[in-house]
Amino acid sequence: MPFMLTRSMLLALTTLLALPGLASAQTLITVPNASIVADVSSDGDVVVGSGAGGGFIWRWREDPAPLVIGGNDATAVSDDGLVVVGCITDPIEGAEVAARWTLATGWVSLGFLPNALNCPSKSNAYDVSADGGTVVGLSWDGCSGRGFVWTEATGMQELAVLGSGANRASAISDDGSVIGGFAQGFNRSPVLWYPDQSGIELDITAGGEIYDFNKDGSLALGNWNGSAFFMDTSTLSKTFIGQLNPGWSGIPKAITEASDRVVGFDVNQLALEGWTWSPGGGMKSLASYFSELGAQGVPSIVDVAMAMSDDGSVIVGRYGFFPSKAYIFNAGIDPWQDAGAGLAGVAGVPLMIGSGDLNVGSLATLDTSSAAPSASAWLIIGLTNLSVSFKGGLLVPNPEIILGPFSTDATGALSLSSLWPPSVPTNTETWWQMWIQDTAAVKSFSATNGLLSTTP
Predict the structure, then answer these.
(1) Is the separation of the CB atoms in 290 and 312 below 8 Å?
(2) Which of 270, 304, 378, 392 has its CA at a distance of 20 to 30 angstroms from the CA of residue 20?
(3) 122 in the Ramachandran plot: left (φ > 0), alpha (ψ -120 to 50) or beta?
(4) DSSP state for residue 264 in the 8-state scheme
(5) CB 132, CB 138: distance < 8 Å
(6) Domain of 422, in residue numbers
(7) Of the residues 295, 330, 365, which one is the last residue of a structural domain?
(8) What is the pLDDT along the chain (456 residues), one digit of tens a residue?
(9) Residue 391 sits in a domain of what CATH number?
(10) Are residues 8 and 45 in the same domain?
(11) Which residues, listed in sequence order, are joined to residue 403 by a DSSP beta bridge?
């Protein structure tokens, strides 16, 4: 039979969580001193964009504020959040050029194509592969636009010139297998390129552009004569999803890996309105979608969705004009995340799994397994990730509450459960870890992995 966390234990937790200053931000987060969030890592943890001081990067679940990295802007980020691409002003050329940033190197120019003039830039970076190794964007032949692909090994290479010659590479799949953008025909027309620099025109009479791909490049997102669509890149078969407002142009910007949600925005001259689309629910405004999921302080119009995490739980973009404001929307789809660490004992590294949706009154459970049998155990709870060396392992939570001792059963298992209390604010992050007496462990204590819970 599982142990129950007692009312007094929960009172201690909820009292701690109710202290002034400990509630986390609302579900819709306005990024300080920023005008747009341009991209988000696939896991949703890292965002990049532009604002006062140029580009920024923010590990927003961990760090209290964005890191301003300078340059002119930041347009895309690698999956691990270690590589950012954007633009800087080249001090020698006196013109804007594509650039790549890491913490070790700062901004480094990617150069420009040989015949590029100041138009007014000489090159611009638009996207980067998941590993940060391949960058695509725009450079020039004179002042006629050319798509480019850059790697450290090859430098900047011109992509095949399609249409009448005014080209731009706007997106690359995470695996680097396919590149998308536009070529000029009668107007902008969606096109695809490949790593060998070859390319194809889908229909040079059709207006539009390719804006994004899923991870392996099997699906492309784009606009076709005003309608948002996604397309199988092997068969070129298109699925049209339209636009939110009749007569406007639908611009899709991101798709989940499950292909069950697309986000983007409509444009009509200077007017913009963000939207989300799903196969069952069709298209609805971002303002409605955010409000339905419980976000507070949502503006009447959320202008633009620029990017989305692979699971759809984090959406980023901007809203408002003069000044525009950058936002992060956190849907909080999975309230439990494995924080790693753990210290081996007699049965290996103990495992702790959290379950329950953490809505008020719902059952929340912590299940520990592979611990020493019939041993004393303590649950460590904190509101921040400390991750310091302790007893030969890593103590993950800042130990603000210590509950126990409990006792594992004859199989080394322990289950703790209780109803989730009403006084825990939305988006509160709590860190959990179990430490167990274990004579086989390096200093007579083993430990589970850490867990991070986020209240929806």
Answers:
(1) no
(2) 378
(3) alpha
(4) E
(5) no
(6) 3-21+335-454
(7) 330
(8) 344 444 444 554 544 444 433 333 347 999 999 999 999 999 999 999 999 899 999 999 888 899 999 999 999 999 999 999 999 999 888 999 999 999 999 999 999 999 999 998 999 999 999 999 999 999 999 999 999 999 999 999 999 999 988 999 999 999 999 999 999 877 899 999 999 999 999 998 899 999 999 999 999 999 999 999 999 999 999 999 999 999 999 999 999 998 999 999 999 999 999 999 999 889 999 999 998 887 888 999 999 999 999 989 899 999 998 789 999 999 865 688 888 899 999 999 999 998 877 877 778 889 999 999 999 999 999 999 999 999 999 999 999 999 999 999 999 999 998 888 877 777 788 999 999 999 999 999 999 999 999 886
(9) 2.60.40
(10) no
(11) 379
The token pair at 59 is 């590990």
